[in-house]
Amino acid sequence: MTSGARARVGAGASASGGRTRTRACNRRKTVRIRSVSNDDDGRTRRDVLAAVALAPLMTLASPAIARGGTPTVEERFAATRGDVRKLMAEDPDFGPTMVRLAWHSSGTYDRMSRTGGSGGGTIRFREELAHGGNAGLEAAIRKLEPIHERRDGISWADLIAFVGVVAIEEMGGPKLKFSYGRVDEMDPGAVTPDGRLPDADKGDGPGPKTRQGLRDVFYRMGFNDREIVALSGAHALGRCHANASGYEGPWSGTPLLFNNSYFVLLKGLKWEPDDTKAKFQYTDPSGQLMMLPSDIALIEDEKFKPYVLEYAKSQTKFFEDFAAAFEKLETLGTSGLTPLNA
């Protein structure tokens, strides 16, 4: 395969496969049971009778089998949702990590060069996982590998985008739109340069350089100030880890719930520099919560601040704007996607 070649993994099921149906339920069939106590394979007459009785129920229990064994797109993604729910139940921190993975997969887009974004699923390559902002995400990809292997027909790119949607919804966030049909990039050479994700600090805390740094990154993708603040609301989830980003602590007291607490806390608490941490960050009066310099920039910047106040006041408005911005984020640079009706 030549450099840059792509392998399309179709998410759609074969149309003809769905038309092949078993008509056993509509016709009577004579089943002959051998009049001996045991069949040659060791089964008793009772075992055979039980198998005959249960066969129709087994067929009805699996719609895919009833159609000939090929699941629909909706069934594939529904099964994947179940897989993600299971992983979140086993490891509650997996939810916020999936949101981060989906965000970082999409957040490399450059609308001028039309490179980056979620379209090729390149974040699964070690070259992109090695980027500074992706520290710790290699373990997340490993957790998704068995799901990708089981759910034939779902590309890596679609899977990474979809798990972010599922995680947000399962943690109480808004219902999000999702479209599938991303094509996996097979050449690691398609990985974009490091440095396309936002920096928490440009060297002046929440000052002008950090604020401009935020705008440079998001404007490059095609977002405006309202969308920058709305997407920042995902910081209601999860926490920073010193062994990954160098920062430490959760943004909110409910890191497994998606809500507008990030804005409520950003507005309502007094945030002071925390001299006890290795990297410059802020802490609340309790010493239990943290904010990054780029978070404080939102409440200090005269153009960002009105949106912080608006979302602190109305979770409904925050959910509405976040849902639209997140769908936009995950579809940047893609084409020919199909909305998932599930």
From TrEMBL:
Any one Pfam family match given in the protein's UniProt record, by short name: peroxidase
Alphabetical GO biological process terms: cellular response to oxidative stress; hydrogen peroxide catabolic process; response to reactive oxygen species
Localization, UniProt: Mitochondrion intermembrane space; Mitochondrion matrix
Chief localisation class: mitochondrion
Residue ranges annotated for the Plant heme peroxidase family profile domain, each copy included: 154-342
PROSITE patterns registered for this protein in UniProt: PEROXIDASE_1, PEROXIDASE_2, PEROXIDASE_4
Cofactor(s) needed by this chain: heme b
Disordered: annotated segments: 1-24, 188-211
CDD domains in alphabetical order: ascorbate_peroxidase
GO molecular function, one term: L-ascorbate peroxidase activity
Comp. bias (Low complexity): 1-19
Transmembrane regions listed in the UniProt entry: none
UniProt keyword annotation of NADP present: no
Catalytic activity: 2 Fe(II)-[cytochrome c] + H2O2 + 2 H(+) = 2 Fe(III)-[cytochrome c] + 2 H2O
Key words of the record: Heme, Iron, Metal-binding, Mitochondrion, Oxidoreductase, Peroxidase, Transit peptide
EC assignment: 1.11.1.11, 1.11.1.5
GO cellular component: mitochondrial intermembrane space; mitochondrial matrix
Family per similarity comment: Belongs to the peroxidase family. Ascorbate peroxidase subfamily.
PANTHER family per record: CYTOCHROME C PEROXIDASE, MITOCHONDRIAL, THYLAKOID LUMENAL 29 KDA PROTEIN, CHLOROPLASTIC-RELATED
Name of the protein in its database record: Cytochrome c peroxidase, mitochondrial
Species per Swiss-Prot/TrEMBL record: Ostreococcus tauri (Marine green alga)
